[in-house]
Amino acid sequence: MRTIFGSLLVAATLVGCASTHTVPLSAAAKGPRAAVSKDEVLVLRGSDPGFPYEEIGLTTKKGTNPTMPEIYEGLRSEAAKQGGHAVVNVRIKTELVTVPIASTSCIPNGGRSTVMHQQTTLAYVASGTLVRRKSR
Amino acid sequence: MKRLLSLALAVSLLGGCTTVGFAPAKAHAKHAQRRSAAQIEVFRTQLPKQRFQEIGAVSVTGTGDPGKLVEKLREKAAENGGDAIIALETFVGGMSATVVRFE
Predict the structure, then answer these.
(1) What is the pLDDT of residue B11?
(2) B28-85, pLDDT tens digit by residue?
(3) Substitution target from B26, B44, B80, B90 for chain A, most A beta carbons within 10 A
């Protein structure tokens, strides 16, 4: 039981830490834009999406225990929502972090006992430049 | 002691297995495999001489023999239609690289 509570709490903590957002790079980039289909969005570590573009923002995704598909999917969804056609120059930084974890167990008199301990996990920040195709 | 145990657990988890992933540059894009893992060229600071297109990225988490981790990246790149991996990077607990296909 204690393990189950602990696992649930770890999962909740990890989900709570994940976030994706975009910072506009210029005043002009703040204008309203129509969303783009996720299927159209390119996510690249390089800087050539194959079309002329203008930079509209800096997109970042933070979380723990990274997998490349999950990171790309997060950046792609955010880009589509922001009306971008690609996220270029994607870079990922990782570090080991120690986070406090609480384990709760039921005790015989009907109460609960909570013990705090620490767990080491791999945290990451993925960032890239959000760009929009330039109309000719 | 608990802290030490947690750290030991994390290290053993990182070292005990490897997880390999491929993320396509364009969602749902598929490229037919045309090379074996052994034929995948690996570049870190240089680029292939041929013209190429970036088709995605691969990553592997795990520690241990770096040669084995690179081999995992090669296998995943080959499966997904890559001809080479470039910009190979290491990070805490793994490696990542860009997968490219020659034009």
Answers:
(1) 46
(2) 999 999 999 999 999 999 999 999 999 999 999 887 889 999 999 999 999 999 999 9
(3) B26
Distance (Å, whole) CA A102 – CA A118: 8
CA distances (Å), origin A118, targets A102, A112, B81: 8, 20, 42
**Measured between CB atoms, does B27 come within 8 Å of chain A?**
yes
pLDDT of B16? 59
Residue A103 CA to residue A113 CA, distance in Å, equals 8
Query: pTM value?
Result: 0.78
For chain A, say whether B12 makes contact (Cβ under 8 Å): no
On chain A, the residues whose CB falls within 8 A of the CB of B87 are: 45
| B20 close to B60: Cβ distance less than 8 angstroms | yes
Q: Touching check for B92 and chain A: CB below 8 Å?
A: yes
Here the ipTM equals 0.79
**Nearest chain A Cα to B87, which residue?**
A45
Find where tokens 């396509």 sit: B24
Q: Does B22 touch chain A (CB under 8 A)?
A: yes
Residues of chain A with pLDDT under 70: 1-17, 28-29, 136
Burial of B61 (0-12, 13-18, 19+ CB in 10 A): buried
Whether B29 has its CB under 8 Å from any CB of chain A: the answer is no
Instruction: Give residue A65's pLDDT.
Output: 82
